[in-house]
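During the reporting period the student researcher (J.K.) took over the structure-prediction task from the postdoctoral fellow and processed the backlog of single-chain submissions. One of the processed entries is reproduced below for the supervisory committee.
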Amino acid sequence: QVQLVESGGGLVQPGGSLRLSCVASGSIFSIRVMGWYRQTPGKQRELVASITSGGTTTYADSVKGRFTISRDIAKSTVSLQMNSLKPEDTAVYYCNLKALRGVVWYEYWGQGTQVTVSS
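J.K. obtained the following C-alpha cells:
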C-alpha cells in the first residue's frame, strides 16, 4: 500500500504564493506519474499539473506560467509552487501517484489540502 501525505495549504491573498508538498511512503514501486489535482464543491476533480518519471510536465491552461511542479525522486516527493494566486485557484488540492507493475496500473490519492485565495 502507498500513502500520500500533503502539506502546505492555507489562506493567501490574491497575488500571493503557496508551496504544496506531497510525500509518498509505503510499498512504492515503479512510479510513473505524480501530480496535483484540485476540486471545488459541485465540480469534477481536475488536473492541475503532473510530472512523469522522465521529467515531462503537464499543466492545466489556467495555471500555466504561474504554477511549477517539481519532483525529488530520491525522496519520493512532489511539490507544486503556486505563484500569482487568484481567487479561482481556491480548491482542495489532492496529490496523485500512478504506478505501473507489469501491465497493471495503480493509482493513489492523498487526503487533500485546502487552498483558499481571498482578501
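The committee noted the following: The two ends are 40 Å apart (CA to CA).
J.K. will present the remaining backlog at the next meeting.
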